[in-house]
Input
Amino acid sequence: MNNDLKNKDTQEKNNNPQMALDDEQRIKVLSPGMLVFKRFIRNKLAITGSIFIVAMFIFSFVGGWLMPYRESETFKKEVEMSKDYAGISINKDYKFVIDEGYDFPLSAQAQFVQAANKEDEVFSSLDIAYSQKKLAEDVHLIYGLQQVASATALGGNYAIELEDSTLNADFSAAFSDAISEGAAFFEFGGNEYVVSQERKNYTAGVLQPVALALKNIYDYASPETSNNLDFCMKSEIAFAEIASGGAAVQEFTSGGVKYQMTVENDRAIISEVKGDELIEYANASRYLVQPIYADVFFTLEFKTKVIELVEAGVEEFTYDHIDGKLGTYTLHRSNDVWSMKWIEETRVLDTFSFPDSVHPLGTDGNGMDVLTRLMYGGRISLIIGFIVVIIETFIGVVLGGIAGYFGKFVDNLIMRIVDIFNSIPSLPLLIILGAMMDAQRVDPMVRMMYLMIILGVLGWPGIARLVRGQILSLREQEFMIAAEATGISVSKRIFKHLVPNVMPQLIVISTLSLGGVILTESVISFLGLGVKFPFASWGNIINAVSNVYVMTNYLFVWIPAGFCILITVLGFNFIGDGLRDAFDPKMKR
Amino acid sequence: MANKLKNANTETREERKKRLTIDNNYEPLVHEDKYILEVNELKRYFEIKDGVLQRIVGYVRAVDGISFKIERGTTMGLVGESGCGKTTVGRTILRLSEKSAGQVLFNGQEVYDLNKEELQKMRPKMQIIFQDPYSSLSPRLPIGEIIGEAVREHGIVPEERYTEYLDEIMENCGLQPYHKQRYPHEFSGGQRQRICIARALALNPEFVVCDEPVSALDVSIQAQIINLLMDLQDKYNLTYLFISHDLSVVEHISDTIGVMYLGDLVEFGSKKDIFRNPLHPYTKALFSAIPIPDPTKQVNRILLEGSIPSPANPPKGCKFHTRCSECMEICKVEVPKQKEIEPGHQVVCHLYNDK
Output
């Protein structure tokens, strides 16, 4: 073999002595591109970076396509919600039914309770005298005194002033007689009048029923009906009659309407009699069933049911609600108060659900599948990265190339523009622009495009500077002078001789800035100013972490997105470094 | 130079204007057909800018009015120490660097009068081979493209003959056709220089500036390249301007020799005349430095004191007087004129004022 080589060598030498340095037996010759590729694939870090990036691409583009869920599909779950619905208690206090047109203030009510306990017939409050009459057990009718006439003693006579026009002189005579006799009562025309004295002033008053004190609670069939003194009094009397062993069915008339009452389990059931028909009118019992919400009205049937269940000591029951929904209710007792809760089956967003077989990475705060969001977010983050870098590189190469090749004034101008762009604080600017777009309600898709353009326009100066520097130095190289000397046109000189020589640095800086752009995009999206819902991006996935609770308890929402960003940026940086090493001609093959 | 800049502040506007005006007075040449290239009072000044406004405060006189003529099919050697302006002369002739004053006639045509298209057409006829074979080849282009690109650009040969022509050129320059696909980094210095030669010759030039083509190569390769250049000269009837600081190489290849010092052509003549009878003290000093491969022979070397003065602020009078061993009073005051001592042998020195 060696001999063969030598023979061939010598043969060649003999043929043409000037070709002594050449031989065809050299190892396979590689183009610079192939050389770079070979060097690149020998770099472990670069390969790791490439694997990262390829994995991210497959994850984002193929993964999103394979996932059964859509980008912004929300998931719901069935939950049982228990709401406070009603309070039930046994009434032990007097309730007052006050007649229309009369006043029975709270202080008088308190005085009454005292009087009732002491079985006093008369009591007063705020200088107004009242009397009470027990109609039945726990039922009292309270009378108030209504002044009809007043008298002033003038010597032996009395000056009487009548306040009621129906009264006449006979009444005055009766009144003065009563005063002079010192009587507390006198009768006139079948009515009993009360005389009260204050020094030399006397008043005559007539007793009027003012209020009814009772302990039963009346529930009416119609929400419009409220307690009426006459009705309640007659009903109470009837109730007491039944309780004391009278007829089981009592009838009474109030306000021209005939009512019928029956008693069942200590509850009075009162119906309105209309001809032959009995219409459900009211129930009376010691139980107070009050809805929590003011706009809810309980039907008699429901209240009866609840009272029955309370008496039976049931803790949970279902009931066909008035709007047709089957509700489950719970009753909870504490002393003589029951709280009723309504358990309702509702569909709510499945937020922050932990990873399971349906959602491998759980769901986020909007009830969307985190894995799907990650995949679509990866697409957007990568696409934004690439487009921004393409914009950056395009502007950078064109302006940097012009500055470098033409030099002098043009160079000066472009480099000053670069300086200006370099001194723009990009993050505040992006934040302001983001806020502006928020205010303008820019469509999320359009917004994304603006974002790419803004990032691209902000990012070109670095590339322009690099290209300009490279071209400035290459321009003076002898091969460029040779190209000029051989009469090659300017455009060919730029694109065939200069640009390919800038390519390595360009590829390296573009790759490295890809990582940077993806980071910037995540930062802006994290701040809520970049990619907006419904579009996902790794940054706005992390944006879900708006408080410490989410951060510490729902790690599965933000750790994967952070990890994706980390892997991608790391991958691009590894590739960038690998390319830089591979392009370095001083590296060994 | 610092002195000069300081003076610039005190001088009047007129003085300054006068100092910065480049003298462009010369007697126009009458073209003679036997000369392919005629250079007349060629000047190339590089501006020195200073201050906030970047005003011109002076010039680096890289080429300070030189005149010579090259006959068709001959080689002119241009020698001189580093920084004397040899390379600038070569580039200015090819209009790769703008002239400041003077005339460059190529085949009787003023090179600097050509417009863009005409210049483009002229380019293939005048070529250049560079000193550094490493930086003069674009690292991202294969050899075939480097050599052939301009051939296609100028349509030197019909398209169907292109490959054949390229192979022929490469073979003539000692390269193999299969080298076409290779890249410059795969070649040795000598091979690269041949690629440069092939690139220049592929355009079928009449005149080639060889800008120190062998100084970056080792001696054995130098010989190969020199012989190659001479062979090609015979073959294509080329005219060379051979720039070198290596006198032995120049002696080998040249027909006429010009000696440059600080932008001036101090001596010009045929090789025979100059080597037999160097007239200028600088030429004498240069020639005494040629090593003689005989250790027993005593050489009377003329040592030049100091280094070459700055071309931005050249000495008054004869530019060489600061280092000249035969310096006279007149040398420090008066600029010497060019004198023809023998037919075709010119010198610029006060020593020969009376002849």
In short: The mean pLDDT of chain A is 80. Residues 111 and 117 of chain A are 10 Å apart (CA to CA). The interface with chain B takes residues 16, 18-19, 21-22, 24, 29, 31-32, 477-479, 481-489, 492, 496-497, 500-501, 503, 585 of chain A (CB under 8 Å).
